[in-house]
Amino acid sequence: MRSPLVPLFGFLVGTVILAGYFFPGSGIAVIRTPMLDWAVILSGVAGLIAIVHLIFGVHWRRLRDPERNHLFSFLIIISFLLTLAAGIFFGPTNKVYQKVVTEIQMPIEASLMAVLAITLAYSSLRLLQRQHNWMGFVFFVSVVVFLLINSGVFSYFANVPFIQPLLSGVSQVPIAGARGILIGVALGSLVTGIRIWIGSDRPYNG
Questions:
Q1: Is the dihedral of CA 29, 32, 36, 41 positive or negative?
Q2: Which element (helix H / strand E) includes 52?
Q3: Residue 186: CB partners within 8 Å, gap ≥ 6?
């Protein structure tokens, strides 16, 4: 039988933090602030544990396994150690260190966005093949149009009087989708928080 103390403790902590937002001038807000600080510290420690497990628990074992390819694991470990040593030696506020991290991070993010664009185009094509309806066709055409617009192909026609306002208006359309995604994420987080708060979901195994 599971102990009721853990979900009860989670319910009380969630109630205090939630009440601190609704009553910022009360004494509950004073209790809420250190609780949130503790949560941030625990999140940082959990992230550090995850990184250590990834480096030494996964890739270090792959280096010791003769049947696996060692190249990528070796590069990841070396990159991590060099980045960690540079961060400790120069400090995170050093301009050279920030530039090096940015020069590494930006190509990775650009590659991920390129893979995302190709995956989205391929998914829209598969959707059009499986579902021969107007929704699949509209989705496929939208993906192709916005990929062409963001690629800069139509920049050669910027001098045409009606092209530039048309492109500016069409490029604002995805903002509505982004706002819808953010609203969905917020509602999903709210529902998940409420389910954990009332004890319906117990990710802490309480």
A1: positive
A2: helix 27-52
A3: none
CA distances from 25 to 17, 34, 38, 39, 108 (A): 13, 15, 21, 22, 45
Write the CB contacts of 154 (distance below 8 Å, at least 6 apart in sequence): 148, 163, 167
Candidates 76, 80, 48; CA nearest to 63 is 76
- 3-class secondary-structure state, position 161: coil
Q: List the pLDDT tens digit at each of the 206 positions of the chain.
A: 466 677 777 778 878 888 887 877 777 778 888 888 888 999 899 998 998 898 888 888 888 877 777 788 888 888 888 888 888 888 888 888 888 888 888 888 888 888 887 887 787 778 777 777 777 777 778 777 777 777 777 777 667 777 777 777 777 777 887 888 889 998 988 888 788 777 777 666 54
Is residue 205 included in any domain, yes or no? no
122 contact partners, CB below 8 Å, separation of at least 6 = none
Shared-domain flag, residues 83 and 162: no
pTM of the model: 0.56
Write out the residue range of the structural domain in which residue 119 sits.
92-151
